Each structure stands twice: as structure tokens, then as C-alpha cells.
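Next comes this protein:
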Amino acid sequence: GCINSCGHHHSGHIGILGVDKDGKEWYQVTLGGSDGSTLSGDAVAGKVIGPSFSAAEVPDVIEAVLATYRDLRQPGEAFIDAVRRIGLDPFKEAGKSARHPVADEETEEALA
């Protein structure tokens, strides 16, 4: 999730890029990237599947993306192949549905 692309999110089948929003940690999720290896096909940068997600949302977003893959894949189909066949829309919707309100720091402190 490094903002300097240290994790090579752009070439990952699933990539997570850290972004700074007003001094807070947020993350962009990308899908469909490829490093050009034999198993992944031509080098392609992944596409962002929505607005940035809070750190608290990322695990749920990734789980929703993986659940969508499991539901829509063909037998034996790799994740990257399913993304290319299906397109990003079902995965974008899955990520969107996994969003949840993020309490601000004042609310979190009041609840503690």
C-alpha cells in the first residue's frame, strides 16, 4: 500500500495503493494488472475499482472482490482470467457494497 508504489500495485492482479487524504490513510484497490510474465500475459496496469477506501474497509472490499470471483468464475479459471472475461463492473459493485461508514476520530474517542 505504499504511496510510492513499492508494492507494485499497478502490476498486481489485485493491487492496493496507499493514498493520503488530509493526513489520513486511505487505499485505492486496482484489479487486472499484469507484470508481463508467461502466466499473466502482456504487461497491463490494473484499473482502480472505485474511490479510495478506508483502512477499516479494505479487508471487506477484498473479501467482496474474492467472493465475486468465486461466484462468477468458470471451473479452474484463474482470477486474472475471470477479471478479463467478466470485466470490472461486477467487482466495482462488490467493492461499493462492502463500503461502510467510517467514524471520525472524535466519534471514536467518544465511544472509547
About this structure: The radius of gyration is 15 Å. The mean pLDDT is 82.
